[in-house]
Amino acid sequence: MSKSLFRRKSLSTILKDAKEGLTEAHGSGLQLHRVLKVKDLTAMGIAAVIGAGIFSTIGEASFHGGPGVSVLFVITAITCGFSALCYAEFASRVPVSGSAYTYSYVTFGELAAWVIGWSLILEYAIGNIAVAISWSGYFNNLLSGVGLELPGWLISNYDNASPETLAAAPHIAGLPIVLNLPAFLVVVFITWLAYVGIQESKRSANAMVAFKILIIVFVIILGAFYVNTDNWHPFMPNGFSGVLKGVSAVFFAYIGFDAVSTTAEECTNPQRDLPKGMFYSLIICTILYVLISLVLTGMVPFTQLKVADPLAFVFDAVNLKWISYIISISAVIATTSVLLVFQIGQPRIWMSMSRDGLLPKPFSKIHPRFKTPSFATIITGILVGVPALFLNLTIVTDLTSIGTLFAFILVCGGVLLLPKDDSNTQRFRLPYINGQWIVPALLLLFAVLFRGALAEKYSFAQGWDVWKHNIPFFLFTIVAILLSIFSFTRKLSLIPVLGLLSCFYLMTEMGIKNWIVFTIWLLTGLLIYFTYSYRNSKLNTATAVS
Fold first, then answer.
1. Mean pLDDT of all residues in 185-189
2. Sign of the alpha-carbon dihedral angle for 191, 196, 202, 205
3. Which helix (H) or strand (E) holds 304?
4. Phi first, then psi: what are they for 372, rounded to 5°?
5. What is the pLDDT of residues 120-148, one digit of tens each?
6. Which residues, 6 or more positions from 16, have their beta carbon under 8 angstroms from its beta carbon?
7. 279-299 pLDDT tens trace
8. In this structure, are residues 71 and 302 in contact, taking their beta carbons and an 8 Å threshold?
């Protein structure tokens, strides 16, 4: 059984399945519309990355890190850049939908592919629930700006509803009806848009991206006139550890570029365009985030930025209250575009898993007219819309980020296992840099520079309640040492090794509770795999027939 758990799909088989479609599921080899070009992919990446982070979570990150949070955006961009290079290598060699799930199937085998697919469900679905709830807040602020108010019981949930809201709500059998209707309705609209076609989705995404970039550039230029450079001193008031406290919020903003790779089968030239789209969007978003963080921390002292709407707050502080309305409009547009990209990405991962037999066949069904994974799109809408209607899941950035980082780690590690490609095809190739001496040297340099912090982490004198939070870092230490040894003995490629280590290190900055919840999520996924997916896998049935 151990060998069958790590059975891998060949590149030729994956490309064949993508070309023919899953005929058993719907009787014909329907394929997705190939309409996306570089500008569309870049827009989708920006649409996913420039979202709630720039309007809300950046305030919390700035409160902890001060002006130095701008450095954190650069660090995160470099980390994502390593991963993006690895994604680009895979996307050019495996130009099919499925993202990290498909890439892991090629390199690590079926069990790892299932685990990463299950992790991506956490990233996309739960993350989008939070974005939908955040969208509702921005939308309600926008309505308030024009003098409109929805009843409190239509924009709340049972966790945060006030006694007055519960009393005013209609009751059924004595139970007050409290729900977040705007969050549900926007998910319904976005799901419909994703259902009717990629052409309509790309036009909507392009328009929203153009609008919000204009607004953000306007805010940066206007805010620059009110920057007091004294607020930038000290640059890292809480040290580098304070900067890293915002890592989950900052990384949550960056996870969107992963969704670009799920549209491979809808690109006119995926081998050429996917890498460009990911890199262009990553560069543009990093520049915007760095500039907006410097403006925020320059307009007011960083200690005042622990607010839900930092952009509106800083302009209120300089008596430009009229700008808040423009920011509210932009926030609604920005979060709508994030919802759209993730509602496009999730069904295509399920479609790929269904093609392989790991999910039921309806998930790979393609609509004969719209050429979209119709059933998977509807299920995605239900799984996001219903919880957004009732639950309070606004604080899930850590949990979503840890799932994404895990996916990035497997993608970076998978590149190290890819067979050498000597073909002359015009595609992106990850530049090879021998990590034999560089990786051990960097690890040694890291140990020397941060020896004080390392000594504290390895100290048992703090007691179990404190020490247990260092367990993820110990796992990182073991992996880092092993990779240094392998880099030296096997001359591993530097870029994927740095991508793997940097993503793993960022995971150690997540709280131990998030690791526990993430582990429970993975164990639940393994239960589903061994009770359904293992037996129904196409590779398993093919082995049984032979």
1. 93
2. negative
3. none
4. -125, 155
5. 887 777 778 878 887 887 888 788 777 78
6. none
7. 888 889 889 989 988 998 999
8. no
Domains parsed from the chain with CATH numbers: 2-414 (1.20.1740.10)
- Of 291, 295, 326, 303, the C-alpha closest to 237 is 303
> Distance between CA atoms of 271 and 213, rounded to whole angstroms?
27
- Helices 323-355 and 110-121 cross at an angle (nearest 10°) of 150
Q: Is 431 left (phi over 0), alpha (psi -120 to 50) or beta?
A: beta
State how far the Cα of 120 lies from the Cα of 100, in Å rounded to an integer: 8
Q: What is the pLDDT of residues 27-73, one digit of tens each?
A: 344 567 778 888 888 888 888 888 766 766 777 788 888 888 888 88
- Find out whether 256 and 338 touch, Cβ atoms under 8 Å: yes
Asked if 409 and 503 count as a contact pair (C-beta separation under 8 A), the reply is yes
Tens-place pLDDT, residues 336-366? 888 888 888 888 888 888 988 899 999 988 8
Q: Kindly list the distances between the CA atom of residue 413 and the CA atoms of 264, 417, 526, in Å, as whole numbers in the listed order.
A: 21, 7, 21
Average pLDDT over residues 377-389: 90
Letter for the amino acid at 287?
I
Q: What values do phi and psi take at 461, rounded to 5? A: -70, -15
DSSP string, 386-408: HHHHH------HHHHHHHHHHHH
User: In this structure, are residues 140 and 373 in contact, taking their beta carbons and an 8 Å threshold?
Assistant: no
Q: Which residue in 199, 120, 194 sits closest to 374, CA to CA?
A: 194
First-last CA distance in the chain: 17
Helix axes 198-224, 38-49, angle to 10 degrees: 60
C-alpha to C-alpha distance for 338 and 318, rounded to whole angstroms: 30
> Can you tell me which residue has the tokens 């409290």?
178
